[in-house]
């Protein structure tokens, strides 16, 4: 299924046809690992939040047991997620926080 | 944003699916806003000065900026993350579409046959479709013969994540913005027959049925799976559209069949030869006084070298091999070569109606001049504005 731009220098891609950005191609692969791990971590974060909410709803625990608010609308979650992404990936920025 | 599709083929999502999709959208926002901004900073601070020192002038073209940026950490970080984020769009939705197959097929069966669908089984998809996993989408537009709705469902679900909310709740912001612009810029123009070419799943076709409810609307694509899905999707939203499987090089309608021929994000997916043939076809199909309207990426000739490079990135790293070749062409020249008179050409920039609102679109429709060279033009990020061009058919 290879169809590349006519003016693309061969150096843009590795032997596997995948784009190559870093001088050491291992780094390209590690970026993939990093982002996959970040995704999985976020999914677990949401799952834990759901479990907390469920435990409170079932009367197994109280809001204060967790020391934070459980009721969250999407907007709050979006802010938390964007902060999460910015925090985990901060070393990629021009000026790391 | 965890966007829910506005029709019955929205699959049941498990909490993990929602979290995964939400993450990918957030990652793309980080890449397309924060890392993109860093790339610009790196260009101004390091890359452009180094180029100027070596060559005695700043980079002048998109290609020069591209080669100068390669190797800089900001480019590498942006690019590696963006490629992976794109792959994650599809990997987030494919398992869901596979798991929810029975529900998706049952929902589609409820409206089967309600919208006309003219398929052409003998039509061999051209190489720009069959030989390409466009946008890094596994299988591309060709899909899976055993599960015809799959490619459309993956595209629809994937676009909901990919667009980060910037294409609207119904993924139709481009069509809505363009239709509103045309209605307000040309209030006397009342098309009775509208054709959308390269419609994929028809998401930007549907707004035309609302803006011009008296018009008969037809939508064409060369790839059957998107049409099969799109016909059901349209009906579920109450839209009457006739979907056809046709090649844009040879559209099987009589001369002068339409008042408006529309495309969105289509021309850059065609080879130069097919693109030229489409413009001739559009001219043939329009009635005198009709309009060809293309929503597309802005051309390199009207953008700065860095802005051009930024958009051309997709050509090399997002399986969009015709992207830069298209952007290097002149919109006016494309129309003229298709048979349109040079004084009938038009182009404009329209604010996203979902972001800026209807009043901003109306204001744009009254404006005499539209600045193209802005970082928001054609760039799917905060504050996006859409570029449109085309020509009236004289008569």
Features:
heterodimer, A: 97 residues, mainly alpha, 54% helix, 0% strand, B: 395 residues, alpha/beta, Rossmann fold, eight-stranded mixed β-sheet, 48% helix, globular
Protein architecture, described:
The complex is a heterodimer of chains A (97) and B (395). With 97 residues, chain A is mainly alpha-helical. Chain A has helices spanning 25-57, 63-66, 74-88. Chain A has a domain at 26-90. Chain A contains three helices and no strands. The longest helix of chain A has 33 residues, at 25-57. With 395 residues, chain B is α/β, with parallel strands linked by helices. Chain B has a domain at 173-392: Vaccinia Virus protein VP39 (Rossmann fold). An eight-stranded mixed beta sheet of chain B has the order 1-4-3-2-5-6-8-7. Chain B is globular and about 65 Å long. The model of chain B has no long low-confidence stretch (mean pLDDT 94).
Tell me the layout of helices and strands.
The complex is a heterodimer of chains A (about 100) and B (about 400).
Chain A: H1 25-57, H2 63-66, H3 74-88
Chain B: H1 15-55, H2 62-69, H3 73-99, H4 101-110, E1 117-118, H5 127-130, H6 150-162, H7 173-185, E2 193-197, H8 206-211, E3 216-221, H9 224-236, E4 242-245, E5 258-264, H10 272-285, E6 286-296, H11 305-317, H12 323-327, H13 331-338, E7 345-351, H14 353-356, H15 358-366, E8 385-392
Parallel strand pairs in B: 1-4, 2-3, 2-5, 3-4, 5-6
Antiparallel strand pairs in B: 6-8, 7-8
Helix pairs in contact in B: 1-3, 2-11, 3-6, 6-9, 7-15, 10-13
């Amino acid at each position: 299924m290879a169809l590349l731009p006519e003016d693309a220098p061969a150096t843009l891609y590795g032997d596997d046809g995948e784009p190559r950005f870093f001088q050491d191609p291992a780094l390209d692969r590690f970026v993939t690992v990093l982002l996959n791990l970040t995704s999985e971590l976020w999914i677990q974060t949401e799952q834990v939040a759901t479990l907390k909410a469920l435990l409170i709803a079932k009367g197994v625990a109280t809001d204060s047991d967790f020391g934070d608010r459980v009721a969250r609308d999407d907007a709050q979650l979006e802010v938390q997620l964007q902060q999460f992404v910015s925090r985990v990936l901060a070393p990629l920025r021009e000026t790391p926080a | 944003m965890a966007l829910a599709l506005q029709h019955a083929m929205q699959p049941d999502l498990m909490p993990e699916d929602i979290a995964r999709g939400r993450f990918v959208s957030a990652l793309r926002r980080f890449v397309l806003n924060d890392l993109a901004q860093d790339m610009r900073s790196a260009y101004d601070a390091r890359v452009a000065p180094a180029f100027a020192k070596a060559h005695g002038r700043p980079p002048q073209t998109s290609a020069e900026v591209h080669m100068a940026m390669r190797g800089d950490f900001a480019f590498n970080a942006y690019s590696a993350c963006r490629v992976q984020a794109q792959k994650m769009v599809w990997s987030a939705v494919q398992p869901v579409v596979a798991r929810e197959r029975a529900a998706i097929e049952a929902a589609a069966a409820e409206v089967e046959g309600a919208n006309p669908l003219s398929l052409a089984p003998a039509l061999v998809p051209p190489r720009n479709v069959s030989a390409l996993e466009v946008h890094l989408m596994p299988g591309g537009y060709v899909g899976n013969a055993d599960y015809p709705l799959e490619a459309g469902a993956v595209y629809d679900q994937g676009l909901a994540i990919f667009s980060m909310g910037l294409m609207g709740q119904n993924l139709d912001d481009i069509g809505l913005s363009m239709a509103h612009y045309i209605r307000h810029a040309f209030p006397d123009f009342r098309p009775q027959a509208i054709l959308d070419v390269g419609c994929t799943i028809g998401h930007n076709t549907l707004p035309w049925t609302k803006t011009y409810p008296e018009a008969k609307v037809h939508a064409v694509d060369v790839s059957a799976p998107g049409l099969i899905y799109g016909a059901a999707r349209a009906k579920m939203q109450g839209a009457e559209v006739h979907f056809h499987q046709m090649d844009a090089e040879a559209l099987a309608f009589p001369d002068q069949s339409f008042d408006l021929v529309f495309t969105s994000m289509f021309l850059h997916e065609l080879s130069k030869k097919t693109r030229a043939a489409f413009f001739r076809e559009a001219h043939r199909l329009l009635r005198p006084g009709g309009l060809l309207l293309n929503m597309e990426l802005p051309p390199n000739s009207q953008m700065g070298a860095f802005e051009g490079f930024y958009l051309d990135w997709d050509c090399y790293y997002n399986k969009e091999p015709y992207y830069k070749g298209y952007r290097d062409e002149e919109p006016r020249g494309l129309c003229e070569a298709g048979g349109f008179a040079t004084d009938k050409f038009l182009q404009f920039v329209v604010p996203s109606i979902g972001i800026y609102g209807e009043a901003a679109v109306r204001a744009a429709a009254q404006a005499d001049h539209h600045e193209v060279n802005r970082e928001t033009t054609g760039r799917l990020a905060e504050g996006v504005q859409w570029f449109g061009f085309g020509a009236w058919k004289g008569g």
